[in-house]
Fold this sequence. Notes:
This protein is α/β, with parallel strands linked by helices. Helix 1 (about 5-15) packs antiparallel against helix 5, helix 3 packs parallel to helix 5 and helix 14 (about 480-490) packs parallel to helix 15 (about 525-535).
Amino acid sequence: MNYKALFVVLFLFSFVFAPFQTEAVTDKSSDKRGHKQEKKLSEPFKAASIQFNPELKKPEKNIKELYKETEKAFKNGAKLVVAPEMATTGYMFESREDIAPFVEQIPGPTTEIFSELAAEYNSYIVFGMPEVDPGTDLYYNSSVLIGPEGLIGKYRKMHLWETDAYWAARGDSEVPVYDTELGKVAMNICMDSAYYETARIAAVKGADILAFPTNSSAQTISALPARAQQNGLYVVSSNRSNTEEGFHMAGGSAIWSPHGEKLAEAPYSPDEDNDIDETKVIYDEVDPEHYQNDNKELLKERRPELYKELSQYIQPWDSRATTESKKVKAMALQYSPKLSDKKTNQKKVSKLIEEEVSTSKDTDLIVLPELSFTGPVTDKSINSIYSLSEKDQGNTYQFISQLAKKHNINIVYGLIERENDQMYNSAILVNENGEIKGKYRKTHLDHNEKRWATPGSSLPVFNIEGLGKIGLLIGDDVRFPEASGVLSVKRADMIAVPVSWSGEYSGNMEINKNISENQYPDHSVVLWDAVAIGAQAYTIFANFVGSEHEFKGSSGLYTLDPLYGLDQPVIGSSTDEEAVPFEFKTIQAEHWFNQEKLLQSRHPVYYDSLIRKQNINHNLPEAQ
């Protein structure tokens, strides 16, 4: 086709006549081309990410170049192509007046150009562009999904970054999911990934693939492995790799599997002196057989009845939030448990604490692993488990209480709690006076725990004098981002998580190490990091090592922002018994992003899918 001639005609239409249109254009491309929805692809297909660098305010040049790069990718066999945020115009606009000459209706001339291309190659493309709504004259930072039948749908960016907010309205609906030949496709844009809710909405609505156009310096692309793992989604991200008006974008476009494995990555650009202006295209395989996977199946274990606080918006008057930053000295204990032998395990804990406290004075908080003195009871009968259980103020509490008083420390530990013949996987918070100040019963039980444990019914936060607010989670709870999200809404300054992890879920960080100014230590765990960054609360994990369960240790502290150099995660060995010490300062009120800013910029009105009781539907009709 002669796309140059078509481009000239359509752009004359767009920039001369479009301002006088009063009605939205109706997409008739499906009727005109006569395409019918083909049956779903069952064989693997090639996806491509175009790391493309548009020039600011040069839409004609950008669209021409993006068209050529997309056609190359289609010719190379790509069935799905993703290009960056604001790919048609560039990104750094100062105001509505500045971007006004470049906004366009969707559907409109640009989507028509790419509809012709997608039809020619029977393929799909996602890219970002600035949109004007003809009914309201509001502008949006939008992305479009175009396929062989024409424009399939659009998404308006929900969570705006400062640059967008100078000209764009925030997205005005939940994340749509579109049913295509390739599977169910959803879109998020850039800052959206800093809020787990956006990808989670797509997942609970049945998405298989998350297309992710971005202009990221680090934060949003670093969140993508967690978004893939949490939701069982393929993620195809496309970033820029150069500098525009002083804002540097880091490249590192990537394709992630539903288990958070990095399948392909484009070159990384560390700074303006190392801009990569030329377009880079990466490819990898998407296999529809993997759309159904254990991470996606886990969506059925969500407990929306516990997540109602996610709908609350208390900003900016939240008088219950801690206002004074606290300096905290803490440690996570990791040891190889002798299974079901409480006395032996208590001796190990005593020794580790004695050794560490003697060299590290003024420790404020110690966190022990899940089911601290029995270890997991996976292979035990119900009667045996019952014999290991005890009341919350039983012998284990007496032991911990004495330790807390002796060393003047707060301690979080786990036990099989018994109450009225029901058993719980519980975590107890004892203060420095040896008093129980908090108790949490695990709310998201794994398959084995369901044999013997009753799930907890709340996600509480506890106020500890001298430390601030502490939330508790246990083990597999971290696979459900809503849990730490509720703790964040309840203003937890820190989160303690006893775990017994042998690598059953998640895995080591696979982001480009150089993206983070303070690099993550070896064997940092993706979903553990996602708790801290997602809730903007310093998070302590305590895990076992060794034993017949081959526990992987890696206990330590996950922090608010190593990406831009605020702080540094501290991670222990994956094999050695040790106390892992660290210090941190809560709240970080002056940093560019923190819990206060996170909560102020959430959009709970669009999170209804996360709190509504529903069956996960993997056979959704096409979104409208």
